[in-house]
Specification:
The chain is α+β, with helices and mostly antiparallel strands. It has four domains: about 45-185, Beta-Lactamase (2-Layer Sandwich); about 190-280, Beta-Lactamase, CATH 3.30.450.20; about 305-420, PAS domain (Beta-Lactamase, 2-Layer Sandwich); about 425-530, Beta-Lactamase. Helix content is about 30%, strand content about 30%. It has helices at about 15-25, 55-85, 85-90, 95-105, 140, 185-195, 225-230, 230-240, 285-315, 325-335, 375-380, 420-435, 475-485; strands spanning about 110-115, 120, 125-130, 145-155, 160-170, 175-185, 200-205, 210-215, 245-250, 255-265, 270-280, 340-345, 355, 385, 390, 395-405, 410-420, 440-445, 450, 490-495, 500-515, 515-525. The protein has a six-stranded antiparallel beta sheet with strand order 3-2-1-6-5-4. Strands 12, 13, 14, 15, 16 and 17 form a six-stranded antiparallel beta sheet that branches. A hairpin with a 5-residue loop joins β16 and β17 (about 410-420). The protein is elongated and about 95 Å long.
């Protein structure tokens, strides 16, 4: 049996890694002032950048680049040895697998053996039944060239990855290839755990086309900051990709960011070490603020108008449970005067719907809603309320405006509920303000439920629980800000659900209130015009 060469010795040596970690552990705390250092100085760049005189920062940058380079070089050297072995050249998967498995233990990723038709085996799955022939790198690889860092979504795992691959030759013929699909999020964590940078520092890596390869915020991976950022960030990326090393500054996320950068010897990537600086006043679109104010005012006015109509109707019942005729007449008037009311219902103290209008909802009469949260709250508080969003017994998401029927002694005789479909009401109210504009409105309850979000098909989702946002860290961070702050602004990364295209957006929000219930009214838009970059 042909044995594969042992590649354990090719793992980045413990002594070298310990040397790197010692540099990071014992160097000055990244705010030193060793004047006279001009290694990364650029006279044409921002002279206010404090990092150019910071020996600790420069040491950290060099250590980061070296650590990344060692891991990548290890992967490539190991793949070359595996590709040259007799077992691999003969295409015997059971004999190829052990050394690929060893490589996976050193660097997080999926190790592959690829056949000439594009089919492939992976260490975890064996023969996958998937095909890589349509990958951009495939023609180059089976043309006899190595691949040193093509960005992909792993076909077998769906993870963001970078592919390192080596062709397998039998004579001059390429008979296969071995590859490591390095999982970028896991790789980033591996490097970060070694670096342990202070909170006000960050590091990330971009490739030769300025796409983000590694970043502490996973949402930024595969995004091109030169295309998505503002003018200062776009200019900084141009500087970074044009030179092997240097320093610059840019504004992002409302703060100045000072950076040093250097190249990775393995390929044409750039490692950037940044220090987050002082806040700056971001340019907020005056039109966006105007739209937000008008939109918020219109929604609040409409809710208060319906609430006032309901209050007058209940007052007309004189503190008693009304007759059928009195109830239906009042409900029909409310329904006719308020285009966004779906139904009006009289509910007895036991939670049974006694009368309801219009007639299309008559089948709901006699049904008991005592298990609904909004009825429970009415029984408990006996005060007017605007409910949270819930699934109505008619089968759609709704909110209800409710007023209790109370006699002079405070005795509870039931309640009247107006059912509203917020997405229908809000879409009609929003259209005049956002039609033919770049603004996308959405509305969220502080608990995270999206009441309205037509642009991104998010209506009805629970932001903090929805599986579609589990990996969208930037959107979850934005949601937490919106939930905790009645008004504010923040940028975030929006990921298109099908194309995975990433876009930096700005969100502005405000709050409307009725009976203690709050809605966050949000306007999102692209803050940077591509023509300005």
């Amino acid at each position: 049996m042909n044995k594969l060469p042992c590649i354990r010795a090719l793992t980045p040596s413990a002594s070298k890694l310990m040397t790197l970690l010692c540099i990071l552990s014992f160097m000055a705390p990244l705010h030193g002032s060793a004047k006279g250092s001009d290694t990364l100085n650029d006279q044409d760049a921002h002279t206010a950048n404090p990092l150019i005189y910071d020996t600790g920062a420069q040491a950290a940058l060099g250590a980061t680049a070296t650590l990344i380079d060692q891991y990548l070089q290890h992967a490539l050297t190991s793949l070359r040895l595996i590709a040259a072995s007799p077992a691999t050249r003969s295409g015997i998967w059971p004999e190829i697998r052990p050394s690929l498995e060893t490589l996976c233990r050193a660097i997080p990723g999926a190790a592959l053996y690829i056949e000439p038709d594009g089919g492939y085996y992976s260490v975890d799955q064996g023969y996958t039944g998937l095909n890589l022939a349509d990958r951009e790198y495939f023609g180059k690889l089976f043309g006899g060239q190595e691949v040193h860092g093509s960005l992909i979504y792993s076909r077998s795992t769906g993870k963001q990855s970078v592919i390192i691959a080596v062709p397998v030759f039998e004579g001059r013929e390429v008979t296969g290839a071995v590859a490591l699909s390095v999982f970028l999020e896991d790789f980033q964590k591996l490097v970060s755990e070694s670096l342990k940078l202070p909170d006000n520092f960050l590091w990330y890596v971009i490739d030769e086309k300025a796409y983000t390869v590694l970043h502490p915020r996973a949402d930024f991976v595969f995004m091109n900051p030169a295309l998505q950022g503002g003018p200062s960030l776009s200019k900084a990326v141009e500087d970074i990709t044009a030179r092997k090393s240097g320093q610059t500054s840019y504004v992002f996320g409302g703060r100045n960011t000072h950076i040093l950068f250097t190249s990775v010897p393995f390929n044409n990537w750039r490692v950037i070490l940044g220090k987050i600086g002082d806040p700056v006043q971001e340019d907020i679109s005056p039109e966006a603020l105007e739209v937000l104010n008008m939109f918020s005012t219109r929604i609040e006015t409409q809710l208060r108008e319906m609430d006032n109509n309901l209050r007058q109707a209940v007052s007309g019942f004189g503190g008693r449970f009304p007759s059928e005729n009195a109830a239906r007449n009042a409900f029909r008037k409310i329904y006719e005067d308020n285009p966004f009311v779906i139904s009006c219902a009289l509910i007895n103290p036991e939670g049974v719907i006694i009368y309801i209008e219009p007639s299309e909802f008559y089948p709901s009469q006699g049904k008991n809603i005592r298990d609904q949260e909004n009825y429970f709250q009415m029984q408990k508080s006996k005060i007017p309320m605007l409910s949270s969003s819930f699934l109505a017994i008619e089968g759609f998401d709704a909110v209800s405006l409710q007023h209790p029927i109370l006699d002079q002694m405070g005795g509870f005789h039931g309640s009247v509920s107006l059912l509203i479909r917020p997405e229908v009401m809000i879409e009609e109210l929003a259209t005049p303000f956002v039609a033919e504009t770049p603004f996308q409105p959405w509305i969220m309850e502080p608990e995270g439920r999206i009441i309205f979000d037509k642009a991104f098909d998010g209506t009805g989702r629970m932001l903090f629980l929805d599986y579609r946002t589990a990996e969208t860290h930037s959107l979850l961070e934005l949601g937490e800000k919106i939930a905790n702050q009645p008004a504010g602004k923040s940028d975030y990364v929006h990921i298109q659900p099908y194309s995975e295209e990433r876009t930096i957006k700005m969100a502005l929000w405000d709050t409307i209130r009725l009976h203690g219930t709050e809605w966050r009214i949000i306007i999102s838009y692209n803050p940077y015009d591509a023509d300005e970059n």
